[in-house]
Amino acid sequence: MQKNWYRRMLLSYFPIFLFTVTILIFMTFIMVNEISHKETVKADRISTGYIMDTVSRSLRGIETNLLEELEKNDQYREFLNVERTQENREAIFGVVDSMRELIANDSLIDSIYVYRLEDKQVLTRSGLVKWDDFADKGFIEQALASPEYQGWSSIRPFHEMSTEDDRQVISMYKRQPLPFGTEGFVVINVNMYAVERMIRSMNNDKVTFLTIRDEAGQLVFSTLPSIQSGEDQETGKVLNRMNSDMLGWTFESGIAAGQLFLWVSVISYVWIGIGLLTVIFAIFYIIYITRKNYKPIRVMMNRIESIQLRSDGFGMKMDELSLIDRTLENLIQQTEDYEKEQRENLLVGRKQLFFEIMQGEGHQHVEERLLKLKLLPEVNTFDLFAFMIVEIGHYGHFRSGFSVHDQNTLKFALTNVLQELARDDGMHAWAEWVGESRMGIIIGISGEEQAPKDNIRQFAEKGGAWVSENLRMSLTFGIGPVVKGWGMIAMSFKAAAEAMQHKLSLGIEIVIMSDDLPGDTRRRSYKYLQMAADLVREFRLSTGEWRVYLDNIFESLASDCLKDEDIRMLLQTMMDMLGSELGNISDDLQEHFKGEKAGLWKQTVEETISLDQLRVLFFEYLTEMYRHYVAYCETKNHRAMITEMKSYIEENFVNPDLSLKHLSDRFQISGKYASYLFKEEFHMKFVDFIVQLRMEHAEGLLAESEDSVQSIALQVGYANSITFGRVFKRVIGVTPGDYRKLKLKPGKARHSATF
Asked: Looking at residue 424, what is its pLDDT?
C-alpha cells in the first residue's frame, strides 16, 4: 500500500517540527543560564558570608581571649598600681609574658601594650616605655578622649619604636580594671596583612573576586588586579554586598569573568526574538498546509455520508473528524463483539464436549468436533486415553488467601502448566475445570508408547512438584485406568473419581492410581464397630488402655484404605457411642459432645485431609476429655475419703510411724494423691497438720501434768526429747521447759508463741 498521504503530511509539518525543536532547545538554554546565574549568586553569597563570618569570629575570639586573660591574671591589676609594682617587680614580667603568650597563640595579633594612667607609663612586650618615647601616643590620646568606645578602630599605621616601619593595623582597647576601670587600659593591635592573608586563603582569585571597603567607602582590601594596581576600576560584576556590623566594613563579591553572563543574556534575548518570528511564520505556514491537506479529508467524508453506516447519527451537529471517529468506533465495536461472541461460543462448545465425553455421551464424531474446536493436532496418533482428576489441597486457605481475580489467574496458570508438561512428555492433555476445586484432564497417549501407566504417574508427580515449588499449591491426582477409544473415557473418569474418595487413607499431595486401590471394603464395618466399643469400655473404666485401641483403629483404617466418607462415618459413630456413655456425667464432658465446642471440633475434622492429622486430632481431643472424666471421678469420692483420713490421723497422730506412705497403704491411694487432698482441703501440708495436732496435745500435757519432757515427747509421737524440743520451739516460740514455767502466766506464753 502506498503511503503518499503519510509522506505528504510528514513533509508538510516537518519544517515546523524543526523550528519548534530549535526554539525549545534555545529556550532551555536560556532557562539553564538563568538558573545557573541564580545559583552562582547564591553560592557567591554563601562564600562571602563565610569569609565575613570567619573574620568576625577571629576578631571576636581575640577580644574574648584578651578579656579572659585580664580577668584571671591579677598581675595586670598589680601593674596598674604604681606602689604595688615598685614593691613587686615580678608583676611587670608576668604581664609581659602574658602578652607574649597571647601574641604567640594567635597569628592575627600584631602587638599588645598596657597604658598606666597614674604615671603615663606604657608596658609593651619589650618592657616599660616612657610616655615621651612611645610612638603610639596619638591612639592613646584618642582613646582617652573617647573612653566609652568599645569597638575596633579603622585601619591605621602603627609602630612601637621609632626605628620600626609603619604597619597597617586595626586596634581596640579595654579599660582596666574590668569592666569600667579608670586606672588604665590594654590596647591590642591586629595586623591587617595577616587578615588579608587569611581572606586570600579562603578566596579563589581565578573564579571570584572580593573587595572590602570601610564605612567611608575607602578601599580596605581587594583581590582584583586592577584595583590592586591603583586603577580603581572593577573588572568583574558585583553580585553580592554584605555589611559587617562589627567592623563597619562592606564586603563586595562577584565572578571574576562576570561579563560572560552579560554576553549570554544578550544572546538569549536575540534568540527570543528569533523564536517569536519563527512562531509567526509557523502560524501562516500551518494555515497554508492545512488548507492544502483538507481535500483528502473532504473526499473521505463524502464516502462516509454515501454509505450511511449510522442513520441515527445524521442530523447531529458533528465536525468531520468526529463523524469519522464515530464511524470507525462503530466498526471496531462490531468487530470486537463478533470476536467475543466467537470466543465465548468456542469456550462453551469445548466445555460442553468435555462433559459429554466425561459422561460417556455423544462420542460419535468426537475427533471431527475436536479438530473443529482446535483441540487436537492435525496429525492425530492417540490410541490410548486416561482421565485424571486434579484437586487443589487446602482449598479453604486458597480461597481465603487470594482474591477472586487472583484465584482465576492461578487456575488458568495451573491449567496451562499441566498441559505444557504433558506435551513435553509426548502426551496430549485437554484440561477443563469440572468443579470449584477440581480440574479434569483427558490425556491422549500414542499407542507406540511403552508403559503408559508409569508415564502418566511420572507426569502427575512432576506436575505436582512443579506447582508446589513455583505456585506454592498442593495438588492431589486421581488417575483412572488407561482405555482405548473416546467412548471408554467415561469409565476411566468414574474410576478416577472413585480413587479421589481415598485421600484420607492414602495421604495428600499424592498420585492415586485407581488400579492400586484395594477391593471392596464395605463388609469390614462390623470390625470397626467392635473396636470402637472396646475403646469406649476402656475409656469408661479409666484404665488408660483406650489409647492402644485408638492406635489400632487408625492402623486398621490405613491398611484397609477405606473411603473418606466411610472413615468419617466410623469415627463419628465411635464419638456417638462415647457420648451416650459419658455425655450426661458432667457439664464439662457434655460440652465435648454438644454445643459450640463440639461444633467447632466437628468442623475441624471435616477440614482435615489426611489420616495422620485425624489421628493427632482425635488423640488430643480424647485426652482432654479423659482428663475431665478422671478429675470428675476423683472429685466425687475424695471428700468422703479425706473425712475418713482426718479422723484416722486425729486418732493415731501419736503414732511415730504415721506418714504419707502409711496413709497410702491404709487407704489404697498414692502418697502423692494423699498430699494433694490435704493441701486442697486444709490448705496446709500433711506434715504441718500432724505437727499442729501434736503440739496442741503437748501444750495440754505441759500445762496439766507433771510428766517429764521425754515422756511427753513419747506420748505425742516423737522418739526423743531433742527432736520434740526443736519442733516445739519452732512452732510455739519457746522451749518445752520455758513453756511450763511461763504457764504460770498463761497469756504471756501464748503471746510469745504467736509472735
From this structure: 86
Q: Give me the domains of the chain, ranges plus CATH numbers.
A: 73-201 (3.30.450.20), 381-516 (3.30.70.270), 522-622 (no CATH), 653-754 (1.10.10.60)
Using only the alpha carbons of the chain, give its radius of gyration.
Answer: 56
pLDDT for 48-95, tens place per residue?
A: 888 889 988 998 898 888 888 888 888 888 888 877 777 667 888 888
d(CA 637, CA 645): 13
- Write the DSSP string, 175-213: EESTTT-SSEEEEEEEEHHHHHHHHHHT--TTTEEEEEE
Give, for 253, the enclosing helix (H) or strand (E): strand 250-255
Candidates 744, 716, 711; CA nearest to 731 is 716
ω into residue 177 within 30 of 0, thus cis?
A: yes
**Cα–Cα distance for residue pair 501/505, rounded to 1 Å:** 9
The reported pLDDT for the residue numbered 463 is: 87
Query: What is the spatial distance between Cα 329 and Cα 441, in angstroms, rounded to a whole number?
Result: 41
Task: State the Cα–Cα distance between residues 22 and 32, nearest whole angstrom.
Answer: 15
Angle among Cα 293, 296, 301 to the nearest 5 degrees reads: 125
Amino acid of residue 402: F
| 25-44: pLDDT as tens digits | 777 777 777 787 788 888 88
Residues 698 and 712 sit within 8 Å (Cβ to Cβ)? yes
For cell 496439766, the residue is: 704
Residue in the block written with cell 480440574: 439
Cell, residue 359: 459422561
Using one digit for the tens of pLDDT, what is the confidence trace for 713-739?
888 988 888 889 999 989 988 988 888
SS3 of 223-287: the string is: CCHHHHCCCCCCCCEEEEEEECCCCCCEEEEEECCCHHHHHHHHHHHHHHHHHHHHHHHHHHHHH
Chain centre to alpha carbon of residue 337: 48
pLDDT in tens, 590-634: 787 887 888 888 888 887 777 888 888 888 888 888 887 777 666
Asked whether 592 and 576 are in contact (CB, 8 A), the reply is no
Amino acid identity of residue 455, one-letter, is N
Is the separation of the CB atoms in 163 and 145 below 8 Å?
no
- Dmax over CA atoms of the chain, in Å, equals 146
The torsion angle over the Cα atoms of residues 444, 447, 451 and 456, rounded to 10 degrees, is 0
What single DSSP character describes residue 524?
Answer: G
> CA–CA separation, 194 vs 529, rounded Å?
111
